[in-house]
TrEMBL record:
Catalyzes the conversion of dihydroorotate to orotate with quinone as electron acceptor. It holds the Pfam family DHO_dh. One of its GO terms (molecular function) is dihydroorotate dehydrogenase (quinone) activity. GO terms for cellular component: cytoplasm; membrane. This is Dihydroorotate dehydrogenase (quinone). PROSITE patterns: DHODEHASE_1, DHODEHASE_2. One of its GO terms (biological process) is 'de novo' pyrimidine nucleobase biosynthetic process.
Length: 354
């Protein structure tokens, strides 16, 4: 981290975590955060994901820019792709505060935001108005907490977002909306995906659609989910969302409810990623997310079966320069080991799945 990043981190860590998050968004919008200006790329890092050209395989996970307010700066922050949201059909405030906790000793975060956002119409309008560039920008889509038909909510947001976003992510794995994870069951998920794909196709646009899964699935549920993904026409998967487990945490906030992300999620999410990769048998690409905070961890995700990776929680502890550092580190290691992203993907899936 640069001295500027270290000073900014120290100042933000004096504040309530949610207030610090909001101030970081404002700082990005005002141009106060030093950024690389563009994504680092090379012949080894440039890749494709479900037909999208990416300058590098290091993306930003959903949840940071919930309302697509700083898409421009984020595409200049070194990421090879960016995901914003989640967006629901109607605006909603989310869960009561406090709902974001730093577990500094564990280099982790617990959140129970509950899809707080300004609504799909406002978010999609911002996405549609943005200048298009080499860094794809996707939208994570969700359902309103009080919806009587959550599957219909996902389809509605997809219809609004299809022409505005470069990809869409069906988020049925957030632990912070009651009973949302029930939609990961085979029958419910298959119907939900069909509705989203039909809504996307009816819009006249065809951005790729991914499904984001939970890390807390047992083997039978994971196998069932993978079978649905293979047969559904979906373009890929994201593994994984946050976890409800709390094993081995040292922080006083460990008992807070919500989804845990950051370093403690790494091994669990990577194991689920590897098992999903084996179930899919190379039929669909996987975005690996959960606990990535270094070149070695990004490398391990790709070895376990990820085509590309996403980061988020580690940015809180290491600053926005992390994306550029990981991308450059991956390039150097690919060169030193005389390999490629394609050859690396899944090369250690069996070991990580064990």
């Amino acid at each position: 981290m640069s001295l500027i990043e270290q000073a900014g981190r120290a100042a933000l860590f004096r504040l309530d975590p949610e207030r610090a998050h909001d101030l970081s968004i404002r700082a990005l919008a005002m141009g106060l955060v030093p950024l690389p200006g563009r994504a680092f790329t090379s012949e080894l890092l440039a890749t494709t994901l479900a037909g999208m050209a990416l300058p590098n395989p290091v993306g930003l996970a959903a949840g940071y820019d919930k309302n697509a307010r700083v898409v421009g700066p984020l595409t200049r922050a070194g990421f090879g792709f960016v995901e914003v949201g989640a967006a629901t059909p109607r605006p909603q405030p989310g869960n009561p505060k406090p709902r974001l906790f730093r577990l500094t000793e564990d280099r982790a975060i617990i959140n129970r935001f509950g899809f707080n956002n300004e609504g799909a119409e406002a978010i999609c309008a911002r996405l549609a108005a943005r200048p298009r560039g080499p860094v794809p920008v996707g939208l994570n889509i969700g359902a309103n907490k009080d919806s009587a038909d959550r599957a219909a909510d996902f389809a509605h947001v997809a219809s609004l977002a299809a022409g505005a976003a470069d990809f869409l992510t069906i988020n049925v794995s957030s632990p912070n909306t009651e009973k949302l994870r029930d939609l990961q069951g085979a029958r419910a998920l298959a119907a939900l995906i069909r509705g989203v794909l039909d809504a996307r196709d009816a819009s006249g646009a065809r951005p790729p659609v991914f499904v984001k899964i939970a890390p807390d699935l047992d083997e039978a549920a994971l196998a069932e989910l993978a079978a649905v993904l293979r047969d559904s026409g979906i373009d890929g998967a994201i593994a994984t969302n946050t976890t409800l487990t709390r094993d081995g945490l040292a922080s006083r906030h460990a008992s807070e409810t919500g989804g845990l992300s950051g370093a403690p999620l790494f091994r669990l999410s990577t194991r689920i990623l590897a098992r999903l990769y084996r179930h899919l048998d190379g039929k669909l690409p996987i975005i690996g997310v959960g606990g990535v905070g270094s070149v070695d961890e990004a490398w391990a995700k790709i070895e376990a079966g990820a085509s590309v990776v996403q980061i988020y929680s580690a940015l809180i502890y290491q600053g926005f320069s992390l994306a550029d550092r990981i991308a450059r580190g991956l390039d150097a290691r690919l060169r030193s080991e005389n390999t490629t992203l394609a050859a690396l993907t899944g090369s250690a899936a069996d070991r990580w799945a064990a």
